Amino acid sequence: MNVPRKYSLLRFIAFLLKLFAWLILLAGIAGTILGFVFVASRSGGNLPDWLQFAPLVGTILLPIVSIVWFVQFFAFGSILSLLIDIEQNTRLLAARTGAAPEA
User: Fold this and answer.
1) pTM
2) Phi, psi (5° rounding) for residue 5?
3) Which residues contact 38 (CB under 8 A, 6 or more apart)?
């Protein structure tokens, strides 16, 4: 038995969240590579002593932050997909058993 698909906008939002998660991860990887290239190319420079390690710290923290954001966005998109699938399977099971829908 075939049940109509509902919540197409919610499916699209879940897809966008997962896509955005992958874009964040790729941007974090690219930023980390560019950051290490920047840090390697600047030996000393004109920065004050207390700022010498700021680019290195930022370059080290960038992949950590991007991984955390990736996990959060991807998990939220997956949870939305899971809830939609549970609802669809519940309607399919109700249609198979002949249970009357409540709403």
Assistant:
1) 0.79
2) -80, 130
3) 55, 59
